[in-house]
């Protein structure tokens, strides 16, 4: 296990984690999960060490449960469990390769836990406009758009507090990836220590349809939510370069 370089992908459901997983595992030097029979080939469903997101409420809900946040002080953060995870995940990896990839959305709130178990690992987190995540997740969570916006921001805020404790962390925004796929993939692979490969995975921007729905529904939400709450959402989103009332606008922020 110590001879392998682990990469963990995190980010909320519907933020682009599956796309990023497909891109990275397509590299000839990387082994990821394929045809495992579990949803989106997520590692959280292929192990018995820690609870998956559904145990904390599932998509659009898990981050509200404080128990979903795991760090290096968690009682499960032991060498025995690291060995057990490697054994369980190793059944699905090609262990002839030196770089082993795992993806699960709730990795976003357990980065420090994973780093404790695999100290030499790299962590890649993808973030996306909270509006797009909210509308894309609602079919699973069955909760309101305001609640889903809050959930996204709670998870992002928790992750950004954890970031200073992570020596090998790469943060990519979905909007940057779909705007310049080759450039962003090449930068990420360079950070990993790999050359660009012939990547034929289609990368398209799927934010527009969600923003169109928001544009049609915005006035009804604004009338049902206090202006103070709207202003609070706006302020919290700006920390990550996003604007609630102008969702197509994305600006640079130093932390992203």
The CATH topology is Rossmann fold
Number of domains: 1
Q: Mean pLDDT across all residues, rounded?
A: 93
Largest sheet: 5 strands, parallel
Provide a count of the helices: 9
Read across the widest sheet, the strand sequence of neighbours is 2-3-1-4-5
Strand residue content = 5-15%
Low-pLDDT ranges: none
- The backbone outline, from C-alpha atoms, is globular
Helix content: 40-55%
CATH superfamily: P-loop containing nucleotide triphosphate hydrolases
Oligomer class: single chain
Top-tier CATH class: Alpha Beta
Key phrases:
256 residues, alpha/beta, Rossmann fold, five-stranded parallel sheet, 41% helix, globular
Descriptive account of the structure:
With 256 residues, the protein is α/β, with parallel strands linked by helices. The chain is 41% helix and 9% strand. It contains 9 helices and 5 strands, in the order βαβαβαβααβαααα. It is globular.
Can you describe this structure in just a few lines?
With 256 residues, the chain is α/β, with parallel strands linked by helices.
Helix/strand layout:
Layout lengths: L4 E6 L6 H9 L4 E2 L47 H12 L8 E5 L7 H7 L4 E6 L2 H12 L3 H18 L6 E5 H6 L1 H12 L14 H18 L2 H12 L18
Parallel strand pairs: 1-3, 1-4, 2-3, 4-5
């Amino acid at each position: 296990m110590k001879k392998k370089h682990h990469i963990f992908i995190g980010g909320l459901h519907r933020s682009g984690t599956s796309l990023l997983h497909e891109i990275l595992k397509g590299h000839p030097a990387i082994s990821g999960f394929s045809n495992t029979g579990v949803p989106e080939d997520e590692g959280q469903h292929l192990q018995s060490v820690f609870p998956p997101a559904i145990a904390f409420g599932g998509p659009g809900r898990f981050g509200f449960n404080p128990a979903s946040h795991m760090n290096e002080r968690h009682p499960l953060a032991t060498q025995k469990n690291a060995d057990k995870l490697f054994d369980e995940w190793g059944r699905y990896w090609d262990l002839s390769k030196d770089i082993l990839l795992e993806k699960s959305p709730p990795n976003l709130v357990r980065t420090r836990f994973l780093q404790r178990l695999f100290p030499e690992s790299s962590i890649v987190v993808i973030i996306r406009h909270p509006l797009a995540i909210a509308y894309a997740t609602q079919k699973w969570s069955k909760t309101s758009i305001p609640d889903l916006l809050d959930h996204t921001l709670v998870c992002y805020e928790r992750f950004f507090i954890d970031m200073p404790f992570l020596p090998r962390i790469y943060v990519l925004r979905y909007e940057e990836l779909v705007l310049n796929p080759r450039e962003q993939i090449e930068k990420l692979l360079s950070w990993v220590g790999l050359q660009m490969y012939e990547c034929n995975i289609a990368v398209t921007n799927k934010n527009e349809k969600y923003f169109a729905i928001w544009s049609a529904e915005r006035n009804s939400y604004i009338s049902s939510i206090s202006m103070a709450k709207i202003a609070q959402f706006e302020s919290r989103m700006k920390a990550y370069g996003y604007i609630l009332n102008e969702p197509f606008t994305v600006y640079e922020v130093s932390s992203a």
